[in-house]
Amino acid sequence: MTQHTKLPILGEKSFRLKGETHQLVTFLNKTLKDRDLIFGLTLDGTNYRIIIYDSSSNDHPEGDSRE
Predict the structure, then answer these.
(1) Which of 8, 29, 40, 45 could join 51 in a cystine, given CB atoms 3.0 to 4.6 angstroms apart?
(2) 9-26: pLDDT as tens digits
(3) Which residues touch 63 (CB under 8 Å, ≥6 apart)?
(4) What is the DSSP string of 33-56?
(5) Residue 61 belongs to a domain
(6) Whole-number average pLDDT of the chain
(7) What distance in Å separates the CA atoms of residue 31 and residue 25, rounded to the nearest whole number?
């Protein structure tokens, strides 16, 4: 079984929006992927929550001897 490491969260914010909110997250992910950022979006009732993850910490998992 593969063990996954949780990515560090850099920030999160809940808000109300209407429309094609998922397109904003897709745009951010495509535009900023070279900066090791991943954006997630969840919907809880009528509120959206956007989460920004730092994927650079996934480059050197614990136990990796590279420095």
Answers:
(1) 40
(2) 899 888 887 778 889 899
(3) none
(4) GGGTEEEEEEEETTEEEEEEEEGG
(5) no
(6) 81
(7) 10
Separation of alpha carbons 52 and 24, rounded Å: 13
Beta-strand pair 9-15/47-54: antiparallel
Assess if residue 4 is contained within a domain.
Answer: no
Assigned domain for 65 exists: no
Are 36 and 54 in contact, with CB atoms under 8 Å apart?
yes
Q: Is residue 36 part of a domain?
A: yes
Q: Domain range spanning residue 52? A: 9-56
Among 45, 48, 56, 42, smallest CA distance to 10 is for 56
CA-closest candidate to residue 59, choices 28, 32, 29, 36: 36
Which residues of the chain have a pLDDT value below 50? 60-67
